[in-house]
Design a protein that fits this description.
Elements lengths: L1 H21 L3 E2 L9 E5 L12 E4 L2 E4 L12 E5 L5 E10 L14 E8 L15 E6 L12 E2 L3 E5 L2 E3 L3 E2 L12 E8 L3 E6 L2 E11 L13 E2 L4 E6 L4 E10 L2
Antiparallel strand pairs: 1-18, 2-5, 3-4, 4-18, 5-17, 6-13, 6-18, 7-8, 7-17, 8-9, 9-12, 10-11, 10-15, 13-14, 14-15, 15-16
């Protein structure tokens, strides 16, 4: 009886080792510069980093507004140069300091991972947001409850429990993260079929059926309606200083 048991244990070990090898996280942010990324800020040409909004300092990717007199609706995005379809995305982020003058109330301690985003080059020079699905990164105000890991849908719609969901945003079930603490969030993405938002190890939101066709993008680009199966990943500059110390991806074959 020992031989079958040993074989069984060996198979378990081999399977475990194989799974570990397959799960390889690749840094999207290298901690040194913005190689592999493209900037697009509303009102400015692709690649122009207005007032050094996106910068790398002390090994962190920082979103800053110290060169702004006021925000002036200069919504910005930092795009991966590569497109992705099936993957796990993991980020560690925090909010610090005060919101820049003129930032909208809803953008207080607000950033986001834009999934399946159109390219920076395809955006109109005055376009505010890329067509995408946004996994919101939000911080609390120290008093009120405010979930993170919500979903918003610029230029898209999603399905919840098999039904088309047309409102712009949907809240998750996460706890509130106040102050300047670091928060880890993962997004598990299977093309247009299924997305999970996982905050500090807890799955806080699941949705399916991503399609092009919503509003909340101005001016609205001419992108054909239908399933949205792939795209770039982008992070935002929406008026509140944000730090990222880790952005990494694991592609799912």
């Amino acid at each position: 009886m020992r031989t079958p048991l040993l074989v069984f244990i060996s198979l378990l070990i081999i399977t475990s080792c194989s799974s570990t090898k397959e799960e390889k996280w690749i840094p999207l942010f290298n901690g040194e510069n913005l190689d592999g990324w493209t900037i697009k800020i509303k009102g400015y040409p692709v690649g122009e980093n207005y007032q050094n909004t996106f910068r790398v300092e002390d090994g962190l990717l920082k979103v800053r507004y110290d060169g702004y007199d006021e925000f002036g609706e200069r919504y910005g995005h930092l795009f991966t140069n590569k497109k992705y379809s099936n993957y796990k995305l993991r980020v560690e982020y925090r909010f610090i300091d005060e919101q820049v003058k003129g930032g909208p109330d809803w953008a207080y301690r607000n950033n986001g991972a834009m999934l399946h985003a159109q390219s920076a080059e395809s955006m109109d020079i005055n376009q505010d947001f890329p067509v995408s699905v946004e996994a919101q990164l939000l911080g609390g105000d120290g008093t009120n409850e405010r979930t993170t890991g919500n979903v918003c849908t610029p230029g898209t719609h999603i399905h919840i429990d098999g039904k088309l969901y047309t409102p712009h945003c949907l809240s998750s079930t996460s706890k509130t993260y106040h102050g300047d603490q670091w928060v880890t969030m993962e997004m598990i993405v299977y093309n247009d079929s299924l997305i999970h938002h996982v905050v500090e190890g807890d799955t806080v939101l699941t949705y399916t059926g991503i399609v092009v066709g919503g509003g909340n993008v101005n001016p609205e680009p001419n992108i054909p309606a239908g399933p949205l199966k792939e795209g770039h990943i982008a992070f935002q500059s929406e008026s509140h200083p944000t730090d990222f110390r880790k952005i990494e991806i694991m592609e799912i074959k």
